[in-house]
Design goal:
The chain is α+β, with helices and mostly antiparallel strands and 214 residues long. Strands 1-2-3-4-5-6-7-8 form an eight-stranded antiparallel β-barrel. Strand 6 and strand 7 form a beta hairpin. The relative contact order is 0.20.
């Protein structure tokens, strides 16, 4: 069984489990969000090669207790390469674990789609202050990466595409504001650490969203 098939199976089981638990406890809510994902150091090549990207996503949250929740979060964003000033960067980014491109070719337009699917444990260690609740979260998941690069070479120009599924861990914090009994808005910042073969990618997603209770 491939990593992709195993991941899909685990996600389906988690979704059914959370939905079943949510129906029995009436503590289930759904959320949507948007924001900005920022390539981060210490991945020097990755951080300097890509510009920040707009993200969009959503998920579901199961409240296990007043201070503890389990969330499944999906986040999509597309990184676009900034202008390449020299061939040295092109060669470094040609690492087979990231963009499988011939090192002799020059990279023109490069677009990388990231689809993160993360299971998080969400903790509210403090009491709510005037409907405002700070929280922390940590978890793990996978990211599905699709890279499309336009190669400029001596033998002609062409689009080159590659796919990869990688494991990631993340941690973050946020603020949640209760508008009504069933509606919350939240502001969240996370740090994603994505494992690759030769270099790791660090990404900071910043999210603004709304959650709707059942």
């Amino acid at each position: 069984m491939t990593i992709r098939k195993l991941t899909i199976a685990v996600v389906i089981i988690c979704l059914f489990s959370i939905t079943a638990l949510g129906k029995s406890s009436s503590k289930l809510n759904f959320f949507i969000h948007t924001g900005i994902s920022i390539p981060s150091y210490p991945s020097l090549v990755f951080a300097s090669f890509y510009d920040p990207a707009v993200n969009i996503g959503g998920g579901m949250n199961l409240q296990l207790s007043p201070k503890l929740s389990l969330t499944i979060d999906f986040n999509h964003y597309r990184f676009k390469a900034n202008k390449i000033k020299d061939s040295h960067i092109s060669s470094e980014v040609g690492d087979k674990s990231f963009i499988t491109a011939p090192l002799s070719a020059e990279l023109g337009d490069v677009k990388s789609d990231f689809n993160d699917l993360v299971l998080n444990l969400k903790i509210k260690p403090f009491y709510t202050i005037k409907r405002l609740s700070p929280y922390f979260l940590a978890g793990a998941g996978v990211t599905f990466i699709k890279v499309a690069s336009y190669l400029i070479g001596n033998k002609g120009n062409d689009w080159y595409k590659s796919h990869s599924t990688r494991f990631l861990i993340n941690a973050g914090f946020g603020l949640e504001y209760r508008i009504s009994k069933d509606i919350d808005i939240f502001l969240e910042a996370c740090y994603n650490y994505c494992f690759l073969t030769h270099q790791h990618m660090n990404i900071i997603p910043l999210k603004l969203g709304v959650a709707l209770g059942l």
